[in-house]
Amino acid sequence: MKLSPLESKIFGKVCYGFRRDENKRVETVPQEAEIVQEIFALCLAGNSLEKIQSHLCKQGVPSPSGKAVWSRDVLNKLLNNYKYTFGIIDHVTYCAVEEMKSSRCRNLHRYIGDVEEWDE
Fold first, then answer.
1. Hey, which residues does 2 pair with through a beta bridge?
2. Which long-range contacts (CB under 8 A, 24 or more apart) does 24-27 make?
3. What's the predicted TM-score (pTM) here?
4. How confident is the model at residue 2 (pLDDT cuts 50, 70, 90)?
């Protein structure tokens, strides 16, 4: 899938699963798009970032930087990246992952301004 010229201009930095063609239009990279879809599916199935990391390593899928192991930080950023709704995953999947991740937050009502608590 290719984005329109206007969408390609406002897309900004190209992330894993996308590339720019010779006309600078953003298009998906099929093999990488499948990995992105798999990561979202694994997350929706209830897998932690560590389990997803382990799965990708066992499958021999190199990270976006070419390393053998994906970092949990990279996986988290990927799962938070709305750009994947431009042809790789649908909006419903993205929102479902966001909702699932927010429900996993351990301290939903903790106020960050309680400096004394953080110092303990």
1. 27
2. 26/2, 26/86, 27/1, 27/2, 27/3
3. 0.81
4. confident
Question: Strand 18-20 vs strand 26-28: parallel, antiparallel, or unpaired?
Answer: antiparallel
Q: Parse the chain into domains and list their residue ranges.
A: 5-107
Do 28 and 51 meet the contact criterion of CB atoms below 8 Å apart?
no
First to last CA, the chain: 51
Kindly report the backbone phi and psi dihedral angles of residue 20, in degrees, each rounded to the nearest multiple of 5, phi listed first.
-105, 135
**Angle value at C-alpha 98, between 96 and 100, nearest 5 degrees:** 70
For residue range 42-101, list pLDDT tens digits in order.
Answer: 999 999 999 999 999 999 999 999 999 999 999 999 999 999 999 999 999 999 999 988
Longest pairwise C-alpha distance within the chain: 55
Q: How many CB atoms lie within 10 A of CB 25?
A: 16
pLDDT of residue 120: 46
CATH topology of domain 5-107: Hect, E3 ligase catalytic domain fold (3.90.1750)
